Amino acid sequence: MELSQRTGIPASRIYGVATFYEQFHLEPHGRHTIRCCRGTACHVKGGSGMIRAVQRALGVEEGETTEDMLFTFETVACLGACALAPVMVIDGVYYGKMTSQRVKTVISSLRSLQEETA
Ligand code: FES
Fold this sequence. Notes:
With 118 residues, this protein is an alpha+beta fold. Helices cover 43% and strands 15% of the residues. It folds into two domains: 1-28, no CATH class; 31-117, 3-Layer(aba) Sandwich (Glutaredoxin), CATH 3.40.30.
């Protein structure tokens, strides 16, 4: 609303742009974005287990960001890499044939890397 008042651009137009582009978010976003596929191929290969493992590892639900602002967790209909099912993408890097253990390992590695660079 403030942006609309300052620029004179209707709020509906600003909202339209902000929700159209994937790079814009209306809520604060974590440093890393984890996207899990919930598509059919991934579901058949254990995608729901992968999603639960991410939720357990992060302590957040779909669409939420961790309190430390490190991770935002999202799900998508298909990541276009069905042969690697179940698949998740973190900051554009694909991780295929995910198991609960691999989810824990990948997230732990990212947390460790974050602590080293902090
Ligand atoms: S269904 Fe998961 S990548 Fe296509």
